[in-house]
Amino acid sequence: MTAVIFFIFAALALVGALGVVLARNPVHSALLLVVTLVSVAVFFVQQQAHLLAAVQVIVYAGAIVVLFLFVIMLLGVDREESLDDPLPHQRSAAIALGAIVLAELIFLAGHNWATGATAPDQFALKGGSTALGNNVERVARVLFTDFLWPFEITAGLLVIAVVGSVVLARRSGQPVELLEEEVDSVDDVDTLEGEAAAP
Amino acid sequence: MRITDTYYLVLAAMIFTIGAVGVLVRRNVLVMFMCIELMLNAVNLTFVAFARQLNDVRGQAFVFFTLVVAAAEVAVGLAIIVAIFRRRRGATADDVRMLKG
User: Fold this and answer.
1) How far does the CA of residue A102 sit from the closest CA of chain B (Å)?
2) In Å, how far is A131's CA from the nearest CA of chain B?
3) Which residues contact A38 (CB under 8 A, 6 or more apart)?
4) What is the pLDDT along chain A (199 residues), one digit of tens a residue?
5) pLDDT tens-digit profile of A96-147?
6) In chain B, whose CA is at the least distance from the CA of A161?
7) What's the rounded Cα separation, in Å, for the pair A81 and B26?
8) What is the DSSP string of A45-81?
9) Do B14 and A47 touch (CB under 8 A)?
10) Cα separation, A115 vs B95, whole angstroms
11) pTM
């Protein structure tokens, strides 16, 4: 049963990943990305990472993909895009490099290069004393004791990301130096100046 | 049949490779970002597989930090795309080719 579920969702994950790369429409790419993300969440459940499976669906499928779709719709780039290659040989070179990377990774995956050392009881995924609780409790205990300092730093990282994205996406108060094609496309320059002076 | 950790590692390698080729092949910056998300997800899957193999919950704790970095990266990256789009009326990698100096 585990094997059947694994192969079904492995196929779904690979189809979704290929679809992200091959879809001409960015909206289709985003929706196929959800297929892969949910499949990975199923693998997390199979490997006793129940908390991470929930976080994967909530954060990735719920927040990140929605943000992608929001930007696609905001910018209006949801039209078909030709997959033609402007640079000769770029695509074949990329696929050749990808094949090399895949061969290397599979070579490594087939090796028993983990040390085989098992974790002490307090870090054990399962086992240990029953007082350590289930998966959620164990992850939380590690996050808030051993990784407390990195965990607090991620809060700072998120604040920096929010401030940075606001600064980058803000429409600046000064009139920007307009590109020529932009000026040509505007019929009435006065309205543009009025708009720039308004804030 | 028994699904060992090697199956997960090979699957993660495949997803990572598809993402890497996608970043190299596609010109739409948004799709390139989605391919980066694919690569990050493959790494998350590897972390979780090793966490089970070594019976160590710290591997799962690391996935949290990857998630946070992915979220921050998407927020800043999409803001950059919006800023580029405002100037250039396009969101392909060719629209920022003047950055090559």
Assistant:
1) 6
2) 15
3) A57, A61
4) 889 999 999 999 999 999 999 998 899 999 999 999 999 999 999 998 899 999 999 998 888 999 999 988 888 776 777 666 667 788 888 899 999 999 988 888 777 655 566 666 667 776 666 666 777 888 888 889 889 999 999 999 999 999 999 998 887 655 555 554 444 444 444 444 444 554 4
5) 999 999 998 888 877 765 556 666 666 777 666 666 677 788 888 888 988 9
6) B72
7) 10
8) HHTT-HHHHHHIIIIIIIIIHHHHHHHHHHHT--S--
9) no
10) 47
11) 0.83
Amino acid (1-letter code) at residue A86? P
CB–CB contact B48 A56 (8 Å): no
Q: Give me the residue from B30, B48, B85 closest to A68, CB to CB.
A: B30
CA distance B16 to chain A (A): 8
Flag if B61 and A6 touch (Cβ within 8 Å): no
**Mean of all residue pLDDT scores within chain A:** 80
Q: What are the chain B neighbours of A168 within 8 Å (beta carbons)?
A: 76, 79-80, 82-83
Q: What long-range pairs does A139-145 form, CB within 8 A, spacing at least 24?
A: A139/A51, A139/A52, A139/B57, A139/B60, A139/B61, A139/B64, A142/B57, A142/B58, A142/B61, A143/B61, A143/B64
CB contact under 8 A, B27 and A86: yes
3-state secondary structure at position A21 = helix
Query: Residue A139 and residue B57: Cβ atoms within 8 Å?
Result: yes
The beta-carbon neighbor of B25 closest among A72, A91, A147 is A91
pLDDT in tens, chain B (101 residues): 778 888 899 999 999 999 999 999 888 889 999 999 999 999 999 999 988 888 888 889 999 999 999 999 999 999 988 888 887 777 777 777 777 66
Distance between A149 CA and the closest CA of chain B, angstroms: 12
CB B46 within 8 A of CB A108: no
